[in-house]
Design a protein that fits this description.
Length: about 180
């Protein structure tokens, strides 16, 4: 199991065709690798650094000793696993039921909520690369570029230097809620 001491990493998998699918980004203070440490099976994804990172590792044996000896660690691990299962379940439903336009809206809303907010405006800094967004929502970079342009024309999104500015978070949230409700 690994702890991101500083920096950030991306959990991703590649299909035989070479197409990348991103599961999540792991930020400073968060962990990954619990599944392999728990069940002893090979890892189910690749992890790549998306910025300079420092990681700490715990062997499966040490991890199991922590689980046996520290009930608070067990509670924390279970809470994290529940959160990840819910997050991946929501993503699976979105991938199965929403078109590219609405999957991108949902991803941007998630990034906006995690970014810096000023009232109804959110700043996603730095802006994710189009290819990274495509990997997250299972589409192609060109489709992401077209959809981002449409959102800009609609006044919902704008580029500001290295950041993306969501001009109307509430409107974006209504679009996502309507799409998920009709899916």
């Amino acid at each position: 199991m690994y702890l991101v001491v500083s920096g950030a990493v991306r959990v991703t998998a590649y299909a035989l065709s070479g197409r990348e699918t991103t599961f999540r980004d792991v930020q400073e203070g968060d962990t990954f690798g619990e599944l392999a440490a728990i069940d002893g099976r090979p890892r189910s994804a690749d992890v790549i650094a998306i910025e300079d990172s420092l990681l700490a590792s715990i062997t499966p044996g040490v991890f199991w000793n922590l689980l046996r000896d520290q009930p608070t660690v067990v509670a924390d691990v279970l809470a994290r696993m529940c959160h990840l299962v819910r997050q991946l379940s929501e993503r699976l439903v979105d991938l199965s039921t929403l078109d590219v336009h609405n999957r991108l809206n949902a991803e941007l809303l998630e990034l906006a909520r995690a970014g810096r907010s000023e009232g109804n405006v959110a700043i996603i800094d730095p802006a994710p690369r189009h290819a990274d967004l495509a990997s997250r929502i299972s589409t192609y970079r060109e489709q992401v570029t077209r959809e981002l342009s449409a959102l800009a024309r609609a006044g919902i999104l704008e580029r500001a230097g290295r950041a993306l500015v969501v001009r109307d978070v509430a409107r974006l949230a209504r679009l996502v809620t309507a799409a998920r409700g009709s899916a």
